[in-house]
Every structure is written in C-alpha cells, then in structure tokens.
Design brief:
Elements lengths: L9 H22 L7 H36 L5 H27 L12 H4 L1 H15 L3 H11 L1 H10 L1 H21 L2 H18 L3 H14 L3 H17 L1 H10 L7 H24 L4 H19 L1 H16 L1 H23 L4 H19 L1 H21 L1 H14 L2 H40 L3
Helix pairs in contact: 2-3, 2-20, 3-20, 5-19, 6-18, 7-17, 7-18, 8-16, 8-17, 9-16, 10-14, 11-13, 12-13, 14-15
C-alpha cells in the first residue's frame, strides 16, 4: 500500500518501495528456479513490452488500413483501393503468422494446446542436453583445448609477466598469504602427531649402527676424536683437583673394616695421587699408552658397529628405548611448533630471506622462461597435458553441470529470462513480417492484375 508522501520525502518513499519490491521479487525468483531478475533484466523486459506494443500497433494499423481500403473499394473509390487492401491483408497475415511463431517459442498462443508450441518451456531439458553435448564436442575436446592453449603461447607470456619485479612481488605476497593461511588452518596437534609418527617410524625402520660405525671409523682414522680425549682428560684432571676429598673418601669407604684407619688414609692418598698423575700424564702426553688404547678401542668398536651382529642389535635396542622415552617424543613433537613459527615469521616479513629468495627465484624463472624456447615448450607441454587431462577425464561432469543446471531451472522463469534477452529482437521479426507480408501481397496482387487474373 502506498500513501501520499510529503513533497520533501516523495523520492525517499518511492526508493524504499522500489527496494522492497525488488527484494521481494528477487527472493521469489530465487525460490522459483534459481533465477534472479536483475535491474538490467527488468529493463530488458520493459524494452520487450515496448516492442510488443509497437508490433501489435503495426498489426492494428494494417488492419484499420485494410478495413478502410475495403470500404473505399466498395464505395467505388477506384482501383487503388484494391491494391491497398491486398497489401494490408497480406501484412495482417504476415504479422499474425510471425506473432504465432514468436509466441510459440515461449508459451501457447491464446492458451490453446496447439502441438509444437511453448517450445522453450516444454523442451527446456532437451535444450540443456543439446547445449551440454555441443559444448563437450566443440569446446572440451583434447584437440581443441591443446590447439587453443598452444596458440596462446602461455610459456612466453608467463615468463615475461613473472620477470617484472612488481609481478614477482605480487606472486610472492600471494604465496606468503596462502602459506600463512594453510599453516593457520592446520591444527598443531594433528601436525605434531603426524610429524612425530613419521620421524619415529623412519628412525625405527632405519638401522643406525652401520652408519655410526662408518662415521666413527672415519673420525678415528682422521684423528678427530683426539680433541674430545683432550677435553675429557683436562676436565677429569680439574675435577680430581677440586674433589680430592671425595676420591679419598670413596677409597677409604671401600676398605675392609678390620684395617686401621691410618692405613686406609694412606691408601686413599696414594690412590688419589696415582690417579691424578695418570690423568695428568694422559692429558699432557699425546703418545700416552692409554690414548693408544682408546684409539684401538674406538677402532674396534667402529668395526663391530658395522659387522658384529650382537653389537648392532644392542644399538638398535638402545635406539628404540630412547625413541620411546617421553622426553624424546616431546622434543620431536615440538619440532613442528618451532618450524611453523619460523615459517610464519618469514612469510610475514617482506624483507625475510625466505621471501627474498622466492622473489629472486620467480624473477629468474620468468627471465629464463621468456627467452628459453625449450623451457617454454616444456612448460606449455605440462600445462596443456594437465588441462587436457582434466577436460577429457571430467568432460562428462562438466557437461552434466550444464545439463543439470538447465534441468533445475523453472520452466516459466527460464522462458521469461530468455525472452527478456532476445524478445526485443524477436518483435522485429513481427514488424518485418508485417512489412514484408504487405509488400509481398501488394506484389502478388499487382502481378495478378497485370496478367489478368
């Protein structure tokens, strides 16, 4: 219901009413067949109605001319009236015939159940199937897709585009955004579980003893272990100097109960001094026999790690025990958290090494792709192969999208939508039919009179 608005609020009231009406029409159209008649569609429909009135007005005009000409002919106005009446009569026939043809596309003329009328509403599904088959055969064939993609020269264009610094920056930024989004979506607990399981499974399946043995053998052969021995000896000597009382107490505590205390102290002092001397000599003498014994022990152990079955089995058991410890699993699980934080920080920082490297790599790839014909052909081959595979593999699904979409349309709204787009041109057929029919009728009447028919 519309009320008479005040002069100052008339436009606002009309706009609100128009908005409400448009929203209601949109909701109704969406509910019925999935169509939304936009403002442009409504303007087209208004144009169609104007052309219908024009075509109908022309029909009425020739009808009036026919009536007037027949009246004049009967009133003895002369031979010209017959010519006008014949042209007007043929114009009416042409107008009515074309009106019937145009109307039969969208609805039944005059509501009569005439066969082969209302073609679009009744043949909608068949039109959808035909359209899907047409698209599949003429646009989604492997040869057509490959020829079209090859003509585009995607490789060279892509290379020239990527070689531009601004474009490389844009791609880098988009990749960083996508990476951050992917890392944000992923749940840490799920990824940690996967990473932990993968690392644990990989470590359990891979035998580490031979690799450790080869590494140790090389280290011993190169003398790389000697620095470790030097460090151990130096630290052991410092510890002995600092904890002399602890060493003597340990020796005295292990003595039999029946020995005198002064003997125990004497022995403890002697043991401590000999042990201190031994460690000092081992620290200061690179050729000390104990060092040679360590070298031989490590060399033998490296050989056992590679060839001795029992030693290798012990290492594997020790590895499994270590991997099953809760502390180790926590360290493995926390690896993802550290990596994720590092990647996100690098992706967010425009000057990070990660983004700078990606940008540089993209520009380098673009420059090479723009000039290297073989690389262009390779990239284009990959793209063509991928697109052709998708098109040929999923052609049925793609065409069924067209078929199913058309099948889901409401017949009435489909007809109205199509009529809104092509109806104005179809009304020119009615107008042309009226004009051409009148001219043809006039020509036929003239020839008939000329040959005395």
């Amino acid at each position: 219901m519309r009320t008479k608005p005040s002069p100052g609020g008339r436009q606002e009231h009309v706009e609100q009413g128009s908005t409400t009406a448009t929203a209601t029409a949109t909701a109704t159209a969406t509910a019925r067949g999935g169509f939304v008649f936009s403002e442009a569609d409504e303007e087209r429909r208004r144009g169609v109605r104007r052309m219908k009135r024009t075509a109908t007005g022309l029909l009425v005009l020739v009808a009036l001319i026919y009536v007037a000409a027949k009246w004049a002919e009967n009133a003895g106005a002369g031979g010209w009236a017959g010519y006008v009446a014949a042209g007007a009569e043929a114009g009416m026939v042409g107008a009515l015939a074309d009106w019937f043809a145009v109307t039969a596309l969208f609805r039944r003329p005059l509501g009569l159940p005439i066969p082969h009328t209302a073609i679009i509403p009744t043949k909608k599904d068949q039109l959808g199937v035909s359209l899907g088959e047409f698209v599949g055969e003429n646009f989604l064939s492997a040869d057509v897709v490959r020829t079209r993609l090859h003509a585009l020269g995607i490789g060279g264009r892509l290379g020239a585009w990527l070689a531009e610094p601004a474009h490389a920056d844009r791609v880098t930024a988009e990749l960083a955004t996508a990476l951050r989004g992917a890392l944000t979506v992923l749940r840490d607990s799920d990824v940690q579980a996967v990473v932990g399981e993968a690392i644990t499974r990989r470590a359990e399946t891979a035998e580490i003893a031979p690799g450790i043995g080869k590494t140790l053998e090389k280290v011993v052969a190169d003398g790389g272990h000697r620095r470790v021995v030097d460090l151990v000896c130096a630290r052991a000597y410092d510890w002995l100097v600092t904890h002399a009382d602890s060493v003597e107490a340990a020796v005295q505590g292990g003595a039999p109960g029946w020995t005198p205390r002064f003997v125990d102290r004497k022995i403890g002092d002697r043991v401590y001094k000999e042990l201190l001397r031994f460690v000092q000599e081992m620290r200061d003498m690179p050729e000390h026999p104990a060092r040679g014994a360590v070298d031989r022990f490590l060399a033998d152990f490296a050989a056992d790690l590679q060839s001795d079955t029992e030693t290798r089995a012990r290492v594997e058991r020790l590895k499994s025990e270590i991997l099953q410890r809760e502390e180790i699993q926590d360290v493995i699980a926390s690896t993802w958290t550290a990596v994720r934080s590092m990647i996100i920080s690098a992706a967010e920082d425009e000057r990070s090494a990660l983004r700078l490297r990606v940008r540089s790599s993209l520009m380098s790839l673009g420059a090479r792709l723009a000039t290297d014909g073989r690389l262009q052909a390779k990239v284009e081959g990959w793209i063509e192969g991928a697109v052709v595979y998708v098109v040929t593999t999923y052609r049925t699904e793609i065409t069924s999208l067209i078929t199913d979409t058309v099948a889901g349309w409401d017949a009435e709204h489909t007809s109205r939508k199509i009529e809104a787009h092509i109806g104005r041109d179809l009304q020119f057929i009615r107008i042309n039919g009226t004009v051409v029919g009148a001219l043809a009728g006039l020509l036929i009447y003239t020839l008939s009179r000329a040959f005395g028919a």
